[in-house]
Amino acid sequence: MGQHWKWLLTGMSRRRFVGGALAATLLAACGGGESTPTATGEGSGGSGGETAPTATAAAPTVPANIDTSGSTNGGLVPPKAPESNLQSTKQLTVGMSLDPTTLNPVLTTTAAYQSIYAQILEQLVIFGPDGGSVSPWLAESFEWVDDTTLELRLRQGISFTNGEPFDAESVKFSIDAFAAAKAYAFMIPPDVYKETEVVDEYTARVHLNRPYAPFIGFLARGGAALPPKYYAEVGEDAFGQQPIGTGPFVLAEWVKDDHITLKRNDDYWNGPHPVATVTYRVIPEDTARLAALETGEIDLAMLLPVSALNRLNASDTVDAVTHPGLRKFALHFDTKTGPEALKDKRVRIALNLAVDKQAIVDGIFQGAADPMEGQWEARQEFGFNPNISMFPYDVEQAKALLAEAGYADGFDLQVTYTVGRYPQDKELGEIVCDYIKQVGVNVIQRPLEYGTFTSLRQEGTLGSHQWGLLLPPEPYFNYGNFVQGSAYETHDLGDEYSRLVDEASRRTDLDEQLALYHQAAQIMHDDPPMLFLVIPQDIYGVSKRVRGFQPRTDQVLWLFTVDVD
Amino acid sequence: MLAYAIRRILIAIPTLIGITLITFLLVRVTGDPARFVLGDTAPPSAIEAFRAEHGLDKPLPVQFVNYLAGVARGDLGTSLRYQQPVLTLFAERLPATIQLGLSAYILALLVGVSVGVYSALRAGSPLDKVIRVSVLFGQAVPGFYLGLVLIIVVAVGLGWLPTGGRGGLSHLVLPTITLASYLVAFSVRFTRSVMLDVLHHDYIRTARAKGVAEGAVIRRHALRNALIPLVTVLALQSSVVFSGAVVTETVFSWPGIGRFALQAISTRDFPVIQGTVLILTAFVVLVNLIVDLAYAYLDPRIRYS
């Protein structure tokens, strides 16, 4: 449930949006962090898109200690913590599947790494937990002054833990670093960023060479505040081993492949965190991570497999928490080199009707997934079009459409899918192929290891393929991937689609932007370039002693609201 | 013997180059590391830049010669994933693997010898049969399965030991048992068969005839002679320990080179895979050489020419 529905209801333009930590604090305080538990499994059938924007299908109910609110603009900054927290010696241990290679956000966009450095380095602006909004954080507010100028007003009186001040100079340094970073090249074309101007000590203005509204999404994904002197002194690699920021924790110890320990930053600007020590333990094996959670060795297990759900739900000490994800499984139709039949959109619509997405959600994902709703964007994302309905499961209609298109006897279709790259990718590929066979299409399955899969993709010989793409929740980073000539384009959606998406990327007014994306989504629905499948939910195991845990769509762990008993 | 040693070392060089070449080619068959390191969303220009930066755009023979030249200078390359020298990353993780490997060896020796001797002395007894069946189990059960069962039963079910990670002695127990399961079984079988052989030798009969106490006959005469081949054969199992470490370290979140190697394989970190295989191959070759030389030292009848 994105915050955007609020301003849609009120008609308030977000072009001039001032976050307001005060309002945020009040809202957070009033909300109590327990509202809006996700609704239980609906979402099948063809009318899912017509209802009000409530969250869909989080199969296990979210326990009371899990905060699913906080989707209000600026409502992300919790109330200032009391100084009495300094007396606390509480410890929190988190189980991760990956050991980070670096904790320098300039060098990586990996969510698992950000789940660690996000406690040390803070963002100027951040995506809300639902991924559908961008909220201020170290920037007190942001505002598009004109189409190419973004003004950031900064919180005052904040220092990095090495004593360097957080000010407009450090913001300029940070944005310069991120805009030039290779890791963020897919979010910000090289001709976009011009410079950041230091207006005064706490005001910075970003100047772009051309209108590029997704810049704010880029800032929400990167855009951490870096200490200029220290960063320049040690260099980007050494910074990645010993990062320094303004966050509630500092890096205390890093034993490679084993654990990372963070200690509380006693001078944190929003008050000392109630947890004194956070330890991230690297436990790559899913079963072992789950076992460590059950024995109380860790308090929080990130991104567990579907197979863990039964054990988690049966446990007295641990809760299963699911959250709508963003890894979108779809069967991308290659209408350029694929069989002639795919060029006919009736055939592609027929294939969309041939697959029972809800059965896949219930069967393969044990309810911990959401069907794609006839469009690329997920329901919680800003660019989602609520007027589009999911393709229903209708074999008869699918056969009728195929017959109408002249393929009553089917046709040959090779389907390539990854094996072992994403959770349940092989099972999904097999069952989707099976569904397609049932409407008379002769499917030739080609399961591939990811190395070969990606090589063929680079060569352009992959053909129609199923894969699970995870993109940041900024609409342009999603819609933009299917415009003419883009890296993921396997079907030409036409000039109008490309024009709409390009136009949307130039509009800083969110109402106008959204209207354009809605039109683009409709084109994508009417002339589907893919078989829209499912979006698995993220699964976390959370000890009952943990309070305030807030799963996030971008899979980043934020501990700002977390406490332990 | 010096000439022999030098010759063996010289022979080892083409072996190492051969292994390096095979590893080099195999990892390149598995796909482009740029996509793995940079992710699904990296634009083609970034992929190309990455390949150029790491020399992956050059012809394979050129890449191989460059790599060998680096190895000759003691440079095993830079990890694509960590952007740090492979040797540094390897050295950081080596102590953990040595600790686990040594404790597995100690367990294998202690349990293997004592159970093996007992089994030999009571050959044919019901307990001997139980031991022999258990040993078969120990040699056959896969490490990842045994490890997970131990975690679920001992750590989760009974709550006696931690599920994984590297810490105090308690953290060492389950991974050691898992890694040592094959070695223990191997030691038991080997000790039993050597002891059975030794116990039938004339000098044992002589010792007993002289009136030496049975305990002393076993300890001083039989076991001492049986231990030398056991230690030798166990030393030659070092490759088994390293390959077992890959699974054991992953299951128990043990921060050693086995897990490091597996991670490198799954992320196509070519230099790390090549460097790890090269170092471990060199180590195994070296251990074999030392064992061969030690044989000559221990047994005067053996002469190398």
Question: How does this structure look, described?
Answer:
With 565 residues, chain A is of the alpha+beta class. Chain A folds into two domains: 9-246 and 538-564, Dipeptide-binding Protein, domain 1 (Alpha-Beta Complex); 327-536, Roll (Dipeptide-binding Protein, domain 3). Chain A has 16 helices and 21 strands. In chain A, the strands form five sheets. In chain A, strands 8-9-10-1-11-19-12 form a seven-stranded mixed β-sheet. In chain A, strands 14-18-13-17-15-16 form a six-stranded mixed β-sheet. In chain A, strands 4-5-7-6 form a four-stranded antiparallel β-sheet, with helices on one face. In chain A, α9 (345-353) runs antiparallel to α11 and α15 runs antiparallel to α16 (510-526). Chain A starts with a helix and ends with a strand. Helix content of chain B is 78%, strand content 0%. The A-B interface holds A 99, 101-102, 107, 109-110, 182-183, 185-186, 237, 255-259, 281-285, 287-288, 291-292, 294-295, 297, 449-452, 454-455, 458, 467, 469-471, 477, 487 and B 30-32, 35-36, 38-47, 49-50, 79, 81-84, 89, 92-93, 96, 148, 151-152, 155-156, 159, 162-166, 250-253, 255-256, 259-260, 263, 268.
Q: What's a quick, concise take on this entry?
A:
The complex is a heterodimer of chains A (565) and B (305). Chain A has 565 residues and is α+β, with helices and mostly antiparallel strands.
Task: Write a concise keyword list for the protein shown above.
heterodimer, A: alpha+beta, Dipeptide-binding Protein, domain 1, Dipeptide-binding Protein, domain 3, 2 domains, seven-stranded mixed sheet, six-stranded mixed sheet, 16 helices, globular, B: 305 residues, mainly alpha, flat
Itemize the secondary structure elements and their pairings.
The complex is a heterodimer of chains A (565) and B (305).
Chain A: H1 4-10, H2 21-31, E1 90-96, H3 111-117, E2 125-127, E3 134-136, E4 139-146, E5 149-154, H4 168-179, E6 193-200, E7 203-208, H5 215-221, H6 228-241, E8 249-255, E9 259-264, E10 275-282, H7 286-294, E11 300-301, H8 309-314, E12 318-323, E13 327-332, H9 345-353, H10 357-363, E14 369-371, H11 395-404, E15 412-418, H12 425-437, E16 442-448, H13 450-459, E17 465-470, H14 475-479, H15 495-506, H16 510-526, E18 530-536, E19 538-543, E20 546-547, E21 563-564
Parallel strand pairs in A: 1-10, 1-11, 15-16, 15-17
Antiparallel strand pairs in A: 2-3, 4-5, 5-7, 6-7, 8-9, 9-10, 11-19, 12-19, 13-17, 13-18, 14-18, 20-21
Chain B: H1 2-29, H2 33-38, H3 44-53, H4 60-72, H5 86-121, H6 126-140, H7 143-157, H8 169-199, H9 202-210, H10 214-235, H11 238-251, H12 257-266, H13 270-298
